[in-house]
Amino acid sequence: MATAQLTASSISARSLASFEGLRPSNSKFGSPAAVSLVAHRSFRGLVVKAATTVAPKYTSIKPLGDRVLVKINTMEEKTGGGILLPTTAQTKPQGGEVVAVGEGKTIGKTKVGISVQTGAEVVYSKYAGTEVEFNGTKHLILKDDDIVGILETDDVKDLKPLNDRVLIKVAEAEQKTAGGLLLTEASKEKPSIGEVIAVGPGTLDEEGNRKPLSISKGSTVLYSKYAGNDFKGKDGSEYIALRASDVIAILS
């Protein structure tokens, strides 16, 4: 498998800001030297692996166990207004179409099937699975538990969470300080509070039975700051899908 070593010299402030999982609002760099130093410390020893290419002589991929084969959605090359995006600014997809599923797994004496079917549009966890290139298209082989939810429409607010995931509509950031000063976009602190829009069916116990989540739709919750997958809905609202264990309190 081809590998490429990430070095500090290959990372700019712009690429750092767009690096998957790094929140630009919390990253403050004063000078190119500072960027280089942070990049060197943050990415030392990190190796980016290219997708495994499946030779043309193989005509199918059959996932085993509780694994799923997903055809990755292509990157957005334009903004909503039609502006072409450079490669560094294109958003890495976190979704795709299920094209094959494994036979499931056994927990205790219970046979547990895969929670998604072929043809379903799904969202998956960041960095999950093994990427393969098959028939000229990028695919991902990942575990059923790495699938965050099913997209039944083209709007994330309609995401159907799976297993122990919950979908939260993030509260709007404060526009002013306590003293009444208006905040700029860059200085607004991203909230870790939101309203639960949808909940998954729950986790599996040691016998393979579902245990419903203790969080209910409509609750206002406080969640871990760096957890989950962030999305923006068609209405411009911010959403986050995360595990129920990343919800740390219910507010009332």
From TrEMBL:
GO terms for molecular function: ATP binding; protein folding chaperone; protein-folding chaperone binding; transition metal ion binding; unfolded protein binding. The keyword Chaperone applies. CDD domains: cpn10 (cd00320). It holds the Pfam family Cpn10. Keywords: Chaperone. NCBIfam families: PRK00364.2-2. This is 20 kDa chaperonin, chloroplastic.
